[in-house]
Automatic annotation (TrEMBL):
This is Large ribosomal subunit protein bL9. The keyword Ribosomal protein applies. InterPro entries: Ribosomal_bL9, Ribosomal_bL9/RNase_H1_N, Ribosomal_bL9_bac/chp, Ribosomal_bL9_C, Ribosomal_bL9_C_sf, Ribosomal_bL9_N, Ribosomal_bL9_N_sf. It comes from Streptomyces nymphaeiformis. NCBIfam families: L9.
Length: 148
């Protein structure tokens, strides 16, 4: 099935790309979550608009991405959350929580969709998080989760 991506999807493409995927993947995952729309001749006109919006939010060059990477890796991020007695959290830490914690720590403004968690953060302590700034540049960020 041919689809138009509306958001960046790891391993598939960026917003505005027209890709061909399996029918079930598109019907059951990409379209319901708003990551893609079905390709039509009329939808082809939307591609230009999606690409224009992507250019505004996109980090243009590798040099710019490396500058932001240096800022991110120099930022100490502490996130205060509610937890139980054993150190387990009530819920988990989301990419949106991490993006807002980076901003409050004085780091650069990061889109929550660029924050990649290897596995959900459900315990107190220090965790590694990856922030994909550019297709070729990713920053490793240490996040310390403490009890509130």
């Amino acid at each position: 099935m041919k689809i138009i991506l509306t958001h960046e999807v790891s391993g598939l493409g960026a917003a505005g790309d027209v890709v061909d995927v399996k029918d079930g993947y598109a019907r059951n995952y990409l379209v319901p979550r708003g990551f893609a729309i079905r390709w039509t001749k009329g939808g082809e006109k939307d591609v230009a608009q999606i690409r224009r919006a992507r250019k505004i939010h996109e980090i243009a060059t590798i040099e710019q991405a490396n500058e932001i990477k240096a800022q991110l890796e120099g930022t100490k991020v502490r996130l205060a959350v509610r937890s139980g007695d054993a150190g387990r959290l009530f819920g988990s830490v989301t990419p949106a929580d991490i993006a807002s914690a980076i901003k409050t720590a004085g780091g650069p403004d990061v889109d929550k969709r660029r924050v990649e968690l290897g596995s959900p953060i459900k315990t107190l302590g220090s965790h590694q998080v990856s922030v994909r700034l550019h297709p070729e540049v990713a920053a490793k960020l240490g996040v310390e989760v403490v009890a509130a």
